[in-house]
Write a structure and sequence with these properties.
Elements lengths: L1 E14 L2 E14 L3 E5 L6 H8 L7 E6 L2 E2 L5 H10 L1 E4 L3 H4 L6 H11 L4 H14 L15 H13 L5 E5 L7 H18 L2 E5 L3 H4 L4 E6 L2 E12 L5 E9 L11 H6 L6 E6 L2 E6 L5
Parallel strand pairs: 3-8, 3-9, 6-7, 7-8
Antiparallel strand pairs: 1-2, 1-4, 4-5, 9-10, 10-11, 12-13
Helix pairs in contact: 4-5, 4-6, 6-7
Bound molecules: adenosine-5'-triphosphate (ATP).
The site of adenosine-5'-triphosphate (ATP) has 12 residues, from strand 1, strand 2 and helix 1.
GO molecular function: ATP binding; ATP hydrolysis activity; transmembrane transporter activity
Pfam families: ABC_tran (PF00005)
Keywords: ATP-binding, Lipoprotein, Nucleotide-binding, Transport
């Protein structure tokens, strides 16, 4: 069952007389407990998608459901509840996730206090999160006394404090060096396994996207392809990862043929489809050959 479901999602930004279509009919389905990476060129709509899923921004049209919530039909009060209970958000800028004068323990406490959780439960939850994320020694330190990787792990703890079903991270390793970035990414994988929280992480980093079972690529505000990875074991016992790329089909059955394929066969306006046993073929129209 999908925990996150977006269908033909559209977001248009209007600045003066200029209209920018940041999302142009995006389709995405994520199951509960999954961890996916979202990749795409700058300006392709990744941050817009994440802001919508985080309940910070509202879509213009289409469908977007997360858990029991319809993101296009939420009241202001629903939105507050949704952001407090259903999703946690980690931003790229380490500093913007934390508060300079609060210790890790204090900042993790904030969302729980806002949700009126009893003090004892809050203390217990903070301890559990600090432990799970390997930052128990940072409990009483302020951001300036922690490394970038430690700060981002505290940010993950803050995002998870109220036990959200979904954890969203927008380039969480963007400001970090390779080693630290691997450490933060491992923390995300760990909480995904440990707490069963569904994780959606936007990244530019191919070494990050290569480590999740599913990578969704966005091009021009639309889901263009998905790469699924699985581990296969050869007869001699060696294991290796197989990555397969899939095109994404929407509810109406529309599939985009990658430009390289179209150009290779000089396909322009019309193609001939044929249903064969077990597959479909796409041929250039006779008059285009
Ligand atoms: N508040 C806004 N007002 C107007 N246009 C916007 C706004 N936010 C985003 N856009 C535009 O929408 C498009 C998608 O932007 P978005 O930030 O979602 O892309 P992105 O894939 O996250 O890019 P990056 O990797 O550079 O962060 C871009 O053309 C951007 O300029």
């Amino acid at each position: 069952m999908s925990l996150i479901l977006c269908e033909s999602l559209v977001r248009i930004y209007q600045t003066g007389s200029i209209e920018v279509q940041a999302l142009q009919g995006l389709d995405l389905s994520v199951d509960a407990g999954e961890m996916i990476a979202v990749v795409g060129a700058s300006g392709s709509g990744k941050s817009t998608l994440l802001s919508i899923l985080a309940g910070i921004d509202a879509p213009t049209a289409g469908r977007a459901h997360v858990d029991q919530w319809d993101l296009l039909a939420m009241s202001r009060a629903d939105r507050v509840r949704y952001r407090r209970q259903t999703v946690g958000f980690v931003r790229q800028q380490t500093a913007s996730n934390l508060v300079p004068y609060l210790s890790a323990k204090q900042v993790i406490d904030l969302p729980m206090a806002a949700a009126r959780m009893p003090k004892r439960d809050r203390r217990e939850r903070a301890g559990e999160l600090l432990e799970t994320l390997g930052i128990a020694d940072c409990a009483d330190r302020r951001p300036s006394q922690m490394s970038g990787g430690q700060q981002q792990r505290v940010a993950i703890a803050v995002a998870l404090a109220n036990r959200p079903r979904v954890l969203l991270a927008d380039e969480p390793t963007g400001e970090l060096d390779t080693t630290t970035s691997a450490e933060v990414f491992e923390a995300l994988r760990h909480v995904n396994r440990e707490f069963g929280v569904t994780v959606v992480v936007v990244t530019h980093d191919p070494s990050v996207s290569g480590q999740v079972e599913r990578t969704v690529a966005i091009r021009d505000g639309r889901t263009s392809s998905e790469v699924l990875r699985r581990t296969a074991t050869a007869e001699n016992g060696d294991t290796h990862v197989i990555a397969e790329e899939y095109a994404v089909m929407d509810r109406a059955g529309r599939v985009q043929i990658p430009r390289e394929y179209r150009e290779a066969l000089a396909m322009t306006r019309r193609v001939r489809l044929a249903l064969e046993t077990g597959h479909i073929t796409v041929h250039p129209a006779e008059d285009q050959k």
